Amino acid sequence: MKRIALLGAKGQLGSDIHRVLQENSQFEIIPVTRDMLDVENTETIIPILEKLGRIDVLINCTAFHNTEQCEADPLKALRINSIAVLRMATYCKQNSTLFIHFSTDYVFDGSKQAPYTEEDRVSPLNAYGSSKAAGEEAIAAYLDTYFVFRVSSLFGEAGASGKGGNFVETMIRLSKQGKPISVVQDVIMSPTHTQDVAETVRVFLEKEITDYGVYHCSGEGACSWYELAVQTFAFCGITCETIPIMNSAYAAKVRRPLYSVLDNNKLNRIYPMRSWQSALEQYLQRKGYVVIHGGEME
C-alpha cells in the first residue's frame, strides 16, 4: 500500500486529489491541512513530515497564488512557493520519497504566441511566476524522482480560498446582478478543471510512471477569459450582456502573460487531457448549474 501525504488537502485542487485517490484501496491518504502544517513556517516542514511515519509519495497542493498579494509581498511568495518547496524536496531526497508538485503557466511571459512546451525557457513577468519558477528549479536541483505538473486557470468545486472562489463562479454570481459584465478578450490561456488534474495524478501513481520531470497539465485547447465567460453562460442558459474589453483597459497592478496556452502533448501520451469545454460542462453539471435529462443537457 502506498502511503501518500497530501499537503493542502482541503484546497480547490487538494480536495479533488483527495477524493479521487481515495477511490483506490491501495492508497493510504494522509491529509495535511493548514492547521497541521503552515508551510510559511518553513523550518517546521521537515520535522512535521517526519512525524507522519513512512511516506512513499508527497503531494504538495499548497501555494501562495493571489498574484496581487504576491506582488505586494514577494518575500511571502518566495517563502511559500520556493523555500517551502525546497524543504519538501530535501525531505523527499532524505527519505527516497516521490515528490509531486504543481506549478503554473505564469512561469512564461506570453511572447511566444504558440502553445508552450516543457522545453521552452521560463521567463516570468511577476513575483508569483518568479517564485513558482524558483520552486521548480529547487526541485530539479535536489531530486531525480519528481513530477511537476504545470496547470492553468484552475476551476474546481471547492474554489480557491486565496481568490474567493474561481472565475466561473464569479461570472455566474455577477450574472445574477442583471448588469452588463466586461471581460478581458486578449488574454489567452487553457482553463483547467481540478478534477482532470486529480485524475492525472491518480493515473501516474497507478501506472507507476517513471518518466520523471515536468509535464503540462491543462484543459486541451485555448480561449480568452471572455470566451470562457460566454461559454459558461451558454451551458447554463444564462442571458447576460457580456462586453469584450482589452486587458489594457484595466489599471492592473500585476503584469500577466497575454498568452500562456500550454502544450499537453507530452502528458497526452500517458493520460489524454479533454477539451476545456468538456471539462467546463462537467464542472457545471457537478455544481448543479446544468441538469441532465434523458442524456441531454438542459
TrEMBL record:
It is an enzyme of class 1 (oxidoreductase). InterPro entries: dTDP_dehydrorham_reduct, NAD(P)-bd_dom_sf, RmlD-like-bd. Its EC number is 1.1.1.133. Pathway: Carbohydrate biosynthesis; dTDP-L-rhamnose biosynthesis. Keywords: NADP, Oxidoreductase. GO terms for molecular function: dTDP-4-dehydrorhamnose reductase activity. Residues 3-286 form the RmlD-like substrate binding domain. NCBIfam families: rmlD. Belongs to the dTDP-4-dehydrorhamnose reductase family. Catalyzes the reduction of dTDP-6-deoxy-L-lyxo-4-hexulose to yield dTDP-L-rhamnose. This is dTDP-4-dehydrorhamnose reductase. It comes from Paenibacillus chondroitinus. The lineage of its organism: Bacteria, Bacillati, Bacillota, Bacilli, Bacillales.
